[in-house]
């Protein structure tokens, strides 16, 4: 067996949001039109380390794409990244393993690319203020991805540790805030990218008509969003089945899911731009599989 390895630096070199965002839009459509075989991911808890291992397989017959991502998330890591992953790609005709590639860069970029798809459809066309809660890997990636689809005049950042918010604000020409309330009060688009397991964003702080990308809290007993905000917003998810199994924000609030993002992109469900909208992101294996396919195609060209 001759299995090729694609390291993080190669993935980073070839992958750009200009190609990844349309690829994710296409993956979401395929997922919601049931053209993808994908179980809800399995999660193994590593209690002693407060860590988790996720196993995320998917197959798209139309793309002849078969792969699995193995991802760990150890929110308490400090000297190494909190999220680590590899993706194994198989030949869908004969099952032979072909490639193993880094999955960390793909996880970082495809998550933000999916939020960019949500924002493209659900945020006001003239959205000018972006608020980001959290200052880690996803915060940076989201600022880059979302800035490619809207022209933000202001980027407001709140983080638990003010100096981290200030550092990120310095990097992106934004402003660091002491409180979430101050950071989000004028925001047209809000991104929550924290490892919090309790709500950080309250309904009363959010301007009507704002679009929220809720990216953290991927466990059934974790929340990042005030349940009142979940219930009073038009709620989009990446996968209904996963949201009902994995998302504390959805399960504990008992909020009604209006649509999968893919259903909205397909035009089966409305994009409720005028209303307050929440996109609850959990991450789908097909996003990783189609990102890995894109990386392989781009590597052949570069
Ligand atoms: N929906 C999806 O597809 C994906 C979701 N995620 C989730 O996105 C979130 C951010 O991920 P990364 O940026 O990669 O992690 P990171 O470790 O780089 O950053 C985490 C951020 O959360 C903050 N934080 C930690 N505990 C907090 C608390 N109790 N209250 C407020 N802030 C807190 C940290 O200070 C830091 O700013 C995580 O919840 C992660 O699991 C990550 C990858 C994919
Ligand atoms: O989709 C992913 O990849 C992840 N989602 C939730 C947090 C861990 C990684």
Textual characterization of the structure:
This protein is α/β, with parallel strands linked by helices and 302 residues long. The protein folds into two domains: 4-106 and 286-301, ornithine cyclodeaminase, domain 1; 108-284, NAD(P)-binding Rossmann-like Domain (Rossmann fold, 3-Layer(aba) Sandwich), CATH 3.40.50.720. Helices cover 37% and strands 25% of the residues. It has eleven helices and 15 strands. The strands form two sheets. Strands 10-9-8-11-12-15-13-14 form an eight-stranded parallel sheet. Helix 2 packs across helix 11 (285-301), helix 3 (104-122) crosses helix 4 and helix 3 crosses helix 11. It is globular and about 55 Å long.
What's the topology here?
Elements: E1 4-6, H1 8-14, H2 17-32, E2 36-37, E3 42-46, E4 51-60, E5 65-73, E6 83-90, E7 97-102, H3 104-122, E8 129-133, H4 137-147, E9 154-158, H5 162-172, E10 175-177, H6 180-184, E11 189-192, E12 211-214, H7 227-232, E13 234-237, H8 240-246, H9 248-253, E14 259-260, H10 261-266, E15 277-280, H11 285-301
Parallel strand pairs: 1-7, 8-9, 8-11, 9-10, 11-12, 12-15, 13-14, 13-15
Antiparallel strand pairs: 2-4, 3-4, 4-5, 5-6, 6-7
Helix pairs in contact: 2-3, 2-11, 3-4, 3-11
The chain binds 1,4-dihydronicotinamide adenine dinucleotide and the ligand O=C(O)C1=NCCCC1.
């Amino acid at each position: 067996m001759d299995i090729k390895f694609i390291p993080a630096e190669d993935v980073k070199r070839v992958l750009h949001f200009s190609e990844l965002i349309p690829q994710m839009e296409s993956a979401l459509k395929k997922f919601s039109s049931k053209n993808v075989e994908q179980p809800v991911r399995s999660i193994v808890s590593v209690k002693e380390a407060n860590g988790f291992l996720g196993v995320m397989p998917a197959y798209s017959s139309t793309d002849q794409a078969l792969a699995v991502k193995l991802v760990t998330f150890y929110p308490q890591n400090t000297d190494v990244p909190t999220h680590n992953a590899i993706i194994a790609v198989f030949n869908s005709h004969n099952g032979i393993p072909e490639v193993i590639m880094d999955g960390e860069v793909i996880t970082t970029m495809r998550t933000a690319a999916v939020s960019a798809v949500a924002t493209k459809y659900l945020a006001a066309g003239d959205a000018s203020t972006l608020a980001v809660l959290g200052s880690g890997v996803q915060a940076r990636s989201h600022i880059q991805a979302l800035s490619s689809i809207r022209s933000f005049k202001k980027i407001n950042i709140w983080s638990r540790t003010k100096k981290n918010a200030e550092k990120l604000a310095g990097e992106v020409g934004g402003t660091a805030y002491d409180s979430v309330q101050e950071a989000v009060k004028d925001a047209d688009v809000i991104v929550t990218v924290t490892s919090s397991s309790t709500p950080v964003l309250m309904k009363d702080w959010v301007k009507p008509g704002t679009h929220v990308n809720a990216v953290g809290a991927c466990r059934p007993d974790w929340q990042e969003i005030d349940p009142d905000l979940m219930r009073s917003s038009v709620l989009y998810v990446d996968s209904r089945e996963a949201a009902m199994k994995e998302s504390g924000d959805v399960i504990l609030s008992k909020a009604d899911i209006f649509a999968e993002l893919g259903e909205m992109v397909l035009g089966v469900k409305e994009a409720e731009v005028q209303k307050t909208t929440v996109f609850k992101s959990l991450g789908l294996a097909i996003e990783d599989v189609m990102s890995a396919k894109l990386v392989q195609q781009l590597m052949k060209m570069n």
